[in-house]
Amino acid sequence: MTKQIFINLAVKDLQKSMDLYTAMGFANNPQFSDDTAKCMVWSESIFVMLLTHEKFESFATKPIADTKSSLAGLFSLALNSVEEVNQLMEAGLQAGGIEPTEMKDYGFMQQRTLEDFDGHTWEIFFMDMSKFPAQ
């Protein structure tokens, strides 16, 4: 079996969140979706599970963090060009996401940040390793 990663996120409005992630380029897998959870597919091995708070709490051993006011994690998506980064960001912003900071240019990497409705933070970036500083 191929190694896979499932990122589980607690969301307050499941449909609104699914619409945002769809705009960002994720596809819904209805096989693992119902009225309490939506499986959003980024690639063959990367999935984001959007879960209602009630569903999330059934798996959790700690209270759900308020990710609108505290950072619980940073999730990063690598894309193939700055143009793809900008396209994903524009689609996410049009769907209601917010960009809390300006684009960062590290020379070899350009990065933009998108927050979803619940404050989950995504770093969207393009990295050109040919420009990576020699050590």
**What average pLDDT do the residues reach?**
96
CATH-defined superfamily:
2,3-Dihydroxybiphenyl 1,2-Dioxygenase, domain 1
The largest beta-sheet arranges its strands as 1-4-3-2
How large is the radius of gyration?
Answer: 16 Å
Distance between the termini: 37 Å
Strand-residue fraction? 25-35%
Number of strands: 8
The computed structural class is alpha/beta
Low-confidence stretches: none
What is the helix content? 10-25%
Query: Might you state the CATH topology name?
Result: 2,3-Dihydroxybiphenyl 1,2-Dioxygenase, domain 1
CATH architectural designation: Roll
> What is the number of helical segments per DSSP (H or I, 4+ residues)?
3
- SSE string, helices as H and strands as E: EHEEEHEHEEE
Largest sheet: 4 strands, mixed
Domain count, please report it.
1
- Based on CA inertia axes, which overall geometry fits? globular
Overall CATH class: Alpha Beta
